Amino acid sequence: MIGPKIYETVAEMRQAVDAARAQGKRIALVPTMGALHEGHLSLVRAAREHAGHVIVSIFVNPTQFAPTEDFDAYPRDSEADLRLLAGLGVEGVFMPPAEEVYPQGFATAVSVGGPAEGLESATRPHFFGGVATVVTKLLLAALPDVAVFGEKDYQQLCVIRRFVRDLDIPVNILGGPTVREKDGLAMSSRNRYLDADARRTAALVPQVLSEAIDRLDAGEEASTVLADGTARLAEAGFSVDYLELRDAETLAPVDPNGTSAARLLVAAKLGKTRLIDNMNVARPTAGWR
Fold first, then answer.
1. What is the spatial distance between Cα 179 and Cα 91, in angstroms, rounded to a whole number?
2. Count of CB atoms situated within 10 Å of the CB of 31
3. Are residues 139 and 252 in the same domain?
4. Domain range holding 193?
């Protein structure tokens, strides 16, 4: 099996992109931090639907990790990742060393607000600045026609869409649906941190979301539904950062009199493993209570 070409520098990737464009091909980029699973592969397949030349970036971005977080322990398996991408016919993989992305003297950051405010930012204030900076660099390095991100990281997707519009970066940002295990748990590279008992308990996260949505659809008061869901997770051993109902586009608190769709988002730690998830919520015809 012939694998994808590996680019370690921006210059190498741009040369490949220029050659593909000269052949009339559209370019798609799928940014990842590696430790690939079916969720990532679904994004690669979606990218293929929109472009004849697909590049996957693999870079564990240090600027989105706090000193107390799992940067050093974050799963890395580049050989397995490359085998999976070869099976999908990916043309190129951008695997830069840290000094290529953040060379000596690097002194610039992208500051984001709007959908970046609250939720993840409440406990990880460093996170979206790191994400916005590295994604901006990746988009400007490859200048793809489309870039694909997973809806599992829904707030991140909203933030990226916002700063791409604000900064006039010429790329179409696409969201790929969350891919789930048989018991409903959203696929994540961090799931491999869970032991057998914790893995069974983790399946409660999507259950709580689904049941909360059913109750909201039935017209129950949102504050009661969210409090009950939070309590249920806590009783099972989770430390809950948030379980909130937000506007699906802006991530602002839901307007009871508005007409837009909403998103139910959760983040909770089980032991040392932090899980996030979200689901779409159709607005009841009677409005939110």
1. 23
2. 23
3. no
4. 189-281
Whether residue 97 lies inside any domain: the answer is yes
Cβ-Cβ contacts under 8 Å for 106 (sequence gap 6 or more): none
Active-site option among 40, 50, 53, 126: 40
Query: Domain end: 147, 176, 205, which one?
Result: 176
Q: Give the per-residue pLDDT at 286.
A: 57
Is residue 183 situated within a structural domain?
A: no
* Nearest to 43, CA basis, from 145, 172, 177, 135: 177
For the domain that residue 35 is a member of, what is the CATH number?
Answer: 3.40.50.620
pTM of the model: 0.95
Q: What is the pLDDT of residues 53-89, one digit of tens each?
A: 999 999 999 999 999 899 999 999 999 999 999 999 9
Paired with 176 in beta bridges are 150
Residue 136 contacts residue 110 (beta carbons within 8 Å): yes
Residue 287 lies in a domain: no
Please tell me whether residues 141 and 81 are part of one structural domain: yes
Count: domains in the chain: 2
Cβ atoms of 4 and 82 closer than 8 Å: yes
- 26/45 Cα distance (integer angstroms): 15
pLDDT in tens, 40-58: 999 999 999 999 999 999 9
Q: 40 catalytic, yes or no?
A: yes
**∠ CA 273-276-281, rounded to 5°:** 160
Q: What is the DSSP letter of 125?
A: T
> Helices marked H in 109-258 — which ranges?
120-123, 127-142, 154-166, 196-202, 204-217, 222-235
pLDDT classification of 152: cutoffs 50, 70, 90: very high
